[in-house]
Write a structure and sequence with these properties.
Blueprint: H1 2-17, H2 23-58
Length: about 60
């Protein structure tokens, strides 16, 4: 039981040292992730359609 309490206390102490990002930083990062995801999905979708058309043309 002592080890668990010690672990929780040390974890809390480490979390107090963390420099948390601001709300603006988080929103900016989320926008980048969403835009990147949409672009990659579009590119992969285009590649999928082109490959499908190529395979259909062969067979």
């Amino acid at each position: 039981m002592h080890k668990i309490v010690k672990f929780i206390k040390e974890s809390y102490a480490e979390l107090r040292k963390v420099i948390w990002p601001s709300r603006e930083d988080v929103i900016s990062s989320v926008k980048v992730v969403i835009v990147s995801t949409v672009i990659i999905a579009a590119v992969l979708g285009l590649v999928d359609v082109l490959l499908l058309l190529g395979i259909q043309a062969i067979f």
